[in-house]
Specification:
By secondary structure, the protein is α/β, with parallel strands linked by helices. It is built from 19 helices and eight strands.
Length: 446
């Protein structure tokens, strides 16, 4: 009994030390440093467990065994909670199915990939350029996905959006690159990419339809992009002498945050420091595609275990039950990374200068997110709204404020998001954005 009691204490001590080191490791990654406040509850739990493990050496053995049994019971209960939350998540759209008669696709992206590749071995999931973010010392930094492939994107509207990537891996019909005149050249992140709707329903897809498919419209938006990615994409894929208008599409809740992480990559920083820097990605496209295929292999391998890993780590229970409860008991500050306004101004100024020098015109499109209307904070300076607008105006860049033009006075702004929940825009939302862009540009040019 004495040996069992000591083994329990040693186990507690080793586990608490490993837990503390793991949390420290995660909090010191480039992404973790952006949200240090997020890890405070985890540090509290780890230190509390460490103190308890040290005290346990002096606890009477019978009491220690009873505490161990209680802890095991709590852990088992937490896994039952996790199982329930997973079940609830997988069935949360059953009401939608009864109302619309449409089945909500509950498969994971990896399951969709496994199913679809039986009929199309060339189909691929999206390879996010952000997977290259920590590869300092690498020869190249990819800014797109795999080329000329049916690509699986995401699901927020009940179905997985798919598109045929172009020659460079962007969400465009490939023939757009061959047109003599490119009327719109879109730069942005997942909202520009067209997250979770099919290509005709994206901003660029709607612009093509509204434009009668006469002049070219190229969409270089990629999910996960931040302003430095976007500056790099503008420089690398700009077709000199062909592009009339560049649309810099900004999403309010994460573009400033993304800069913190982008500044940790030496290749992306080179676009900021050197106006002439280029990786010559168009010329080296074949080389980049080989690198992306290697990434694909690793991504598929990780995806095979992602659901099991989330379950074992109590992902839903931690984020929906434990952390909110701890935050209520101990009032932690919300994670507020540096706003990066100066860096953003510098990036936008470089983009505007590059565009003007090459005979094109830059337009700034400000997109609001779901939280602005769900939290009814649309009159406040949410996400540095006022400062961003001031920067755009100071640089004399024509502004298309989608918050002011659509959402602010829309009877039901949440109806423009999938099932009124946080996420990207739905088909109607993207359509209204495209129509507003065309209307505002026509007004500017009168």
């Amino acid at each position: 009994m004495k040996n069992i009691s000591r083994i329990i204490s040693i186990f507690f001590l080793i586990t608490s030390i490993l837990l503390l080191f793991y949390i420290y490791y995660r909090s010191q990654t480039p992404h973790g440093k952006m949200f240090l406040n997020f890890y405070k509850p985890y540090y509290l739990i780890a230190f509390s467990f460490l103190i308890f493990s040290l005290i346990s050496f002096f606890i009477p053995k019978n009491l220690k065994i009873n505490i161990t049994i209680a802890l095991i019971s709590i852990l088992v209960a937490l896994y039952f909670v996790e199982f329930y939350l997973v079940y609830k998540k997988n069935n949360k759209f059953s009401g939608h199915e009864k109302i619309t008669g449409k089945i909500y696709d509950k498969r994971s992206p990896f399951q969709v990939y496994e199913d679809l590749k039986k009929d199309n071995p060339e189909i691929v999931p999206l390879i996010y350029p952000t997977t290259f973010k920590d590869e300092n010392g690498s020869k190249y930094f990819s800014l797109s996905g795999l080329a000329n492939r049916k690509t699986i994107h995401c699901n927020e509207n009940g179905y997985y959006s798919l598109y045929e990537s172009d020659r460079y891996g962007f969400n465009n019909p490939d023939k757009e690159w061959n047109k003599d005149k490119i009327e719109f050249f879109l730069i942005g992140d997942s909202f520009t990419h067209g997250a979770c709707v099919n290509e005709p329903d994206t901003i660029s897809g709607n612009l093509r339809e509204l434009n009668g498919n006469k002049n070219g419209i190229l969409n270089l938006g990629i999910s996960g992009n931040g302003p430095l990615h976007e500056l790099a994409s503008l420089r690398e894929y700009f077709l000199k002498g062909k592009i009339e208008k560049v649309l810099w599409i900004y999403i309010e809740h994460n573009d400033l945050i993304d800069i913190t992480q982008e500044l940790n990559n030496e290749i992306l920083v080179s676009y900021l420091k050197d106006k002439k820097f280029s990786q010559n990605l168009i010329v080296k496209n074949n080389e980049m595609q080989k690198k992306l295929l290697i990434k694909l292999e690793g991504q598929v391998e990780r995806a095979q275990n992602i659901n099991l890993n989330k379950f074992l780590k109590l992902y839903l229970t931690r984020n929906r039950v434990i952390l909110p409860l701890i935050s209520q008991i101990i009032k932690f500050e919300k994670a507020t990374p540096d706003n990066n306004l100066e860096e953003f101004k510098n990036i936008l100024e470089l983009a505007n200068g590059f565009t003007n020098e090459n005979g094109s015109k830059l337009y700034f499109v400000y997109l609001p997110r779901h939280g602005r209307y769900n939290q009814k904070n649309n009159i406040n300076n949410l996400f540095n709204y006022k400062e961003v607008i001031e920067i755009v105006n100071a640089l004399n860049i024509p502004l298309i404020d989608i918050h002011e033009e659509i959402f602010k006075n829309y009877d039901d702004p949440l109806s423009l998001f999938p099932f009124r929940k946080a996420g990207h825009y739905n088909e109607k939302g993207y359509e209204l954005v495209a129509k507003t862009i065309l209307r505002k540009i026509n007004e500017f040019n009168k």
